[in-house]
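Review this today:
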Amino acid sequence: MPARILFALVAAVLAALALPAVSHADDFAAAPTRIVVPFAPGGGTDIIARTLAQEMGKTLGGNVIVENKPGAGTIIGTEYVAKAAPDGRWSWRPSPTP
């Protein structure tokens, strides 16, 4: 088999394999992604999360929502994320300090 035909065949197979990934990417951008901050709004962690959400929205091409779930030493926000649907659209933003 000549090299050109082999190359064209491999390229066609790779292109066919990439098509489902492209359609899945469109589905992912359709629903919002959420960042849960386990602290009250207006703090340092909230500001960092909102800045991150803005840049993530540009990169992902969809909406990124920041939800503040303060209380019980971050346990409320942590449980909220732990019980969320495992669909890859949830992120937890703990405190940046040790």
The helical segments are 3-30, 44-60, 75-82. The chain has three helices and three strands. Strands lie at 33-37, 64-68, 90-92.
